[in-house]
């Protein structure tokens, strides 16, 4: 009887260790992936291009779903570009805006496209704008309804597009507001993404990742591409994967700034992350095997890399998990002399590597008292991220809107001159 119980315990321990081993391999892949690109982004530099006086014509699309609080300021600021006025048009795509907002937009020198859908999505709005406008543009530039471009934003994108000839390009999206602890953490998260998935990728020769706004595309190519984009959440991921599948390179202009409102509270944060994680799972199922096939048969490493990213554990969950496992392994080793498989040094080592990739990716300007104070909210953020995993059902079948505040108004020219960069 004792022998049988002993064997059952051994079997359970073997199964438990095997499970921990698989988990360790999975999180280690996620950690090493982030560290390689974080390290490259810290040591390397992205390419720069000379100023171009060969101007291309841009259509600046601003999809606006119930964004009455911010759209008027966004449209007004978008018109202030240093780029020649005859070479760009601001196109506001108005979905469910108030009649008063519509009238004020009509009085502005912008093109207004009014749309209405049973189920609103950015992809639908963008496609309606393409159907409305004549094909007189070279590039389409996508903004969020709260975005404010630095005065030289289009100029810098244009120069890179002219000299490289690429069909897709991403600007550097930075925080418009740092007014709450959540906003600071969200701003830092954005910059880590910029460092790893944009700068680090370009340094190593991979395509930049897209981020949903502050991005520009060849007008006719993107119009054709969007005809098959029916995404409810993550339309930018759908676009990015198809662009990379077509073996086209996505550029990144690190010094072209567009200001984006960061989430201010836990409820908005939770809904936003729910949408992002749901989209990641959706595109993992849709494109991972296809990405592997294109890697093996066509050597398309960019497409596989993007599909592979959907396999990785979301960054905040990864940081929380490896930190917890490192703490547990040290505690169990010290208190019970028990080694949590594959061993305390492995768990501590992978946690240190993950923390190193985070520190490498955070811009120097964020190493201050405000960030340290905001970091006290990290446990709450991690708990919210974890709880989000249980509320993913149906998240990718309906549009989850992130509201923005009309109280956050900036002058992009003043921000650039004051060194917010």
UniProtKB/TrEMBL annotation:
It comes from the Bacteria. The chain crosses the membrane at residues 12-40, 312-332, 344-362. SUPFAM superfamilies: Nucleotide-diphospho-sugar transferases (SSF53448). GO terms for molecular function: glycosyltransferase activity. It holds the Pfam family Glyco_tranf_2_3. The keyword Cell cycle does not apply. InterPro entries: Nucleotide-diphossugar_trans (IPR029044). Keywords: Glycosyltransferase, Membrane, Transferase, Transmembrane, Transmembrane helix. The keyword Membrane applies. Belongs to the glycosyltransferase 2 family. This is Glycosyl transferase family 2. It comes from Sporocytophaga myxococcoides. The lineage of its organism: Bacteria, Pseudomonadati, Bacteroidota, Cytophagia, Cytophagales.
